[in-house]
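[job 0412] stage=fold_complex status=start
inputs:
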Amino acid sequence: MRIIVLQCSVSYEGRLEAYLPSAKRLILNKSDGCVAIHADGGAYKPLMWMNAPNRIIENLDEWVITNPKGEKLRIKIEEIFSDISYEFGDDPGLTKDGVEAHLQELLAENPQHLESGLTLSKREYFTEIGPVDLLCRDTNGIAVAVEIKRKGGIDGVEQLTRYLDYLNKDPKLRPVRGIFAAQQIAPQAKTLAKDREISTVEIDYDELRGMESLNLRLF
Amino acid sequence: MRIIVLQCSVSYEGRLEAYLPSAKRLILNKSDGCVAIHADGGAYKPLMWMNAPNRIIENLDEWVITNPKGEKLRIKIEEIFSDISYEFGDDPGLTKDGVEAHLQELLAENPQHLESGLTLSKREYFTEIGPVDLLCRDTNGIAVAVEIKRKGGIDGVEQLTRYLDYLNKDPKLRPVRGIFAAQQIAPQAKTLAKDREISTVEIDYDELRGMESLNLRLF
DNA sequence: AGGTGTATGTCGCAT
DNA sequence: ATGCGACGTACACCT
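[job 0412] stage=fold_complex status=done
writing structure:
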């Protein structure tokens, strides 16, 4: 990791063209070769950058960074205030918890959490227009398509509606109804779902995780 | 801008929960208060971050950063290798050029590029549910709504469908059909569009630009 | 390598 | 504030 504080101007030509007038800025050059130019504000996103893989040509007063796609970043160096380098070694990386994948996993193992008596037919049921999160059967043997989101918005209801339209064309499945499940569901999404006769279920993640650990203890 | 190289472990509780085991890393603390923890790789995105506005409690061996939404970032400091600060002053910011707006501009001037004989009625035709990129008439005088994207996905087809549903309620326009135009259109989007009887056109941007420069030479 | 869906997306602009 | 669409989105996962 190389960390440089300097006065510079920068230009980018690639998917768009952009230019940064001269100012005091920070450059990060990571060991994978990527370069990022930061201002002292504006959240974590750099003003400009070039990810790996790339080729860096480093002159005294200018860096020219190009990548295989033909994009070009040009840093004009006016004055260097600090230029330090450190070896970091590999980062163990982060462990995440509580994303949509995990929700889907838990609900696939506990479909009855969505509705009493519901049983799983297929997880990630593939269609031409995308994968249906869960395909289930209810106590009457009726097919049920389940769309799972962490945050349930209108777009999720739209997505499930598309799946339902598609699935209901299949004579072997028809009729298919829908359940929209999320940790939180926006009021607008609830209204839209109701309008389309789609059930909504708000999931208590901690409760679901509790059921899972109970299963683990039992079996 | 404060730049710290240190051995640390980090935890985040908020929209998800995550944990970073101890390793050598870089912390950026910008003047707006935002904090980002970088590893020496993985493009420009930090491993963890907390944007402004936030409150930072800085102890000898631990930083605790919280924001009004109740998210919490905890940095456990084990060893500091470098800790430098610089004043940057305001950044003039960047100037951009050349995105979807330009594509719309070019197609507004060359609607025949979308379909032979097509003529423009209105660019950015405003409706209650949003602006229709182009409203045209075909050779039979039938109204045509055009949605333009750089990359055409399912969401774009959904958007156009909403516009068509809306426009077809207007007796002065009805019937209205749709054209979905983009530099690239995803196969799923094509399938969905076909299913809804919406035409799709993939635009060759360079060719279109060529026509434009031809126009400029002619007139 | 290319396509598709997710993201602590971020960011900007509208209401 | 909140919703919605664009982004040099980046990124993981899949064929």
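[job 0412] summary: The mean pLDDT of chain B is 86.
[job 0412] exit 0
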